[in-house]
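Narrative of accomplishments. A recurring question from our advisory board has been how the design workflow behaves on a single, concrete structure rather than in aggregate. To address it, we present the structure tokens for one chain from the evaluation set, followed by the sequence designed for it. No filtering or post-editing was applied between the two.
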């Protein structure tokens, strides 16, 4: 299933199906807390990569990259992916 690897990765840091709102909040905070590391223009709108520490329930706080896209005509970006940069 789509997203299984990301769910397993985030689960290693204390996120699970019982605290989806915590994962959502942490990812949104990550996207707002760090500067854009890279921006690419796509046919759907600009795509931004943000790199920094992701606050997690177990407080190990991995360094991750989140990728956000601002679709044409929308007022807020949407999360495309999130993955570790180094462990």
């Amino acid at each position: 299933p789509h997203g299984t690897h990301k769910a397993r990765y985030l689960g290693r840091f204390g996120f699970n199906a019982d605290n989806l709102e915590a994962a959502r909040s942490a990812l949104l905070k990550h996207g707002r807390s760090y500067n854009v590391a890279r921006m690419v223009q796509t046919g759907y709108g600009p795509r931004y990569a943000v790199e920094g520490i992701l606050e997690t329930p177990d407080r190990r706080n991995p360094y991750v990259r989140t990728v956000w896209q601002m679709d044409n005509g929308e007022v807020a970006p949407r999360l495309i992916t999130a993955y570790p940069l180094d462990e």
